[in-house]
Design a protein that fits this description.
The chain is an all-beta fold. The chain is 0% helix and 48% strand. It is built from no helices and eleven strands.
Length: 127
């Protein structure tokens, strides 16, 4: 099975930056589609960003232009660089992996399309 461990969350002021990391275990990490989701208290888990095996990316409109997802396959790690953070970015951020194969180069933005999840890292942005 695949294990995912997030880190890098914290308490910051609006306008600050954070870089989240997700360390993964797996035999074929380089072939996995990876993503970041977030969930605020009492709300549904929502998509933030995704990256496919070739480095193609896709972002939610709410973070487009402020966030960058990247991966270093040699380290089995995916990152989420977040800039110009806003109070509405406050949430638990989860790393997700899709190990099932699909259309080559596909990007997935729903929770149902991922089969492994990390435990989450808290991001709190004060105004």
């Amino acid at each position: 099975q695949v294990q995912l461990v997030e880190s890098g969350g914290g308490l910051v002021q609006a306008g600050a930056s954070l870089r989240l990391s997700c360390a993964a275990s797996g035999r074929s990490f380089s072939t996995y589609a990876m993503a970041w989701f977030r969930q605020a208290p009492g709300k549904e888990r929502e998509f933030v960003a995704a990256i496919n095996w070739s480095g193609g990316t896709y972002y939610a409109d709410s973070v487009k232009g402020r966030c960058t997802i990247s991966r270093v396959n040699a380290k089995n790690t995916v990152y989420l660089q977040m800039n110009s953070l806003k109070p509405e970015d406050t949430a638990v951020y989860y790393c997700a992996a899709r190990t099932k194969f699909g259309a080559s180069g596909s990007l997935y933005s729903t929770t149902y399309e991922y089969d492994y999840w990390g435990q989450g890292t808290q991001v709190t942005v004060s105004s």
